[in-house]
Each structure stands twice: as structure tokens, then as C-alpha cells.
Amino acid sequence: MTLSLYGRTYLTAYDTDSGALYDRTRAGFLLRVAVLADLARAGRVADRAGEVAVVDGGATGDPVLDLVLPRLGAHRRTWKAWLRTDRKETLAAVEGRLAALGVITVRERPAAFPRPARRAVSVCDAAEVRALQGALAAVLRGAGPAGPDEAVLVALAAAGGAHHVVSRADAKARRDRVEELTGHLDAVAPALGRAVRGLGTTLVAAQGGMGGG
After folding, report:
1. How far apart are CA 87 and CA 9, in angstroms?
2. Which residues make Cβ contacts (< 8 Å) with residue 198, sequence separation at least 6?
3. Strand, helix or coil for residue 197
4. Residue in 96, 1, 81 with CA at minimum distance from that of residue 36
5. CA separation (Å) from 87 to 34, 120, 160?
6. Rounded Cα gap, residues 84 and 25, in angstroms
7. Count of CB atoms within 10 A of residue 176's CB?
8. How far is 177 from 141, CA to CA, in rounded Å?
9. pTM exceeds 0.90
10. Who's near 5: CB < 8 A, 6+ residues apart?
11. For the segment 43-95, what is each residue's pLDDT rounded down to a tens digit?
12. Distance (Å, rounded) from C-alpha 87 to C-alpha 183?
């Protein structure tokens, strides 16, 4: 099965050791990047003076993209602003899509006062997820082929602090390689590449309660 970029982004963000996403807030941002990149590469949106412009608003046939695309056409916003918008809803939609495809299983844990209800997610093939993440680590080190998807996935893992894929040491030692791979996002939309380069600061703000919905 060939997954969309956003589907592979989700698996990249999944930590098989802990049996959960490495960080749901951060994963929400990474998925927003991936969904926007999927739409841009399909010719549905484009970068117009740093803002997201809808080129073709028709149905894509993908439930996640079809959730996001109409909203992009309803407001004029920068790519960075759209990364901060509807993250939780996008994350839930991606999990619903991957569950329907048989890639993950989702179970809602009941609320237990004072803790709210929690969502438990398991990948159906942990070995496949580890293989994907291992291949991405090889791409970072220059030992594996870097197709457009792989380049973006490594760039997102580095920008989002997914240390189970890109360790702190590798992110520091291989900054030039990360920048080279992030350049693939510039080719998709220059402002999207810039937003990913500034993602670290955006994530700190979001997790401090200033990140938007």
C-alpha cells in the first residue's frame, strides 16, 4: 500500500517503543505541513506572495484533503498561519483515515477523573514502521536514496524534534544535510519551506499555550 505524504508523516511521528505518537501537539503541526504539501504537489494550492491560494477546489477523493481544502479557500492566510489552524481536527482525521486503511487501530480510553478521555493508537505493523524510520535515518546520513517524500519526512522529523528518528546529535552534526532536504519543501512552496525552518519556535509557542486551535 502506498500512503500519502501525510500518512507516512504520521508513521514517522509514531514511536514504536512507547506505542504512541512521540508528541501529539508536535505531530499535529507536522501533519498540517504534510497535508499542505500533498495539496500543493497535486496542484490544488499554490504559494501566492507567501499566502496559500487555492487553484483547484474540487474534491480530491481523499477524506483528509477534502476536509482541509475547502477551508483554505475560505480565508486568505499565510502558510505558517495554516500550520497553526485545525491541528487537532486534522490529526483525528488522519487517524480515522489510517484506521480505515488498516494501518493503525484506534481505541478511545474512558475518562477517569481528574484525567480526560485519551486515545490509544497502535500500528498494525510495527516492523514496517521501524523500517521506514530506519530508512529515513539512512537518508539523513546520506546512505539511502532521498526521493521527495523521504526528504520531506526527514526535514519534518528534524524540525519537529522527533528524536526517535533524528537524534539531537544527528540534527546538530548534520545541519547542512537537513537544510538540503528541507529544500525539497521550497520546491513545493517557498513559504512552506520557510515555515518549516521556523517550526521550532512555533512549537515552543504552541506548547506554551499560544499556538492557536
Report:
1. 14
2. 80
3. helix
4. 81
5. 12, 18, 14
6. 10
7. 8
8. 8
9. yes
10. 34, 37, 38, 41, 149, 152, 153
11. 999 999 999 999 999 999 999 999 999 999 999 999 999 999 999 999 999 99
12. 24
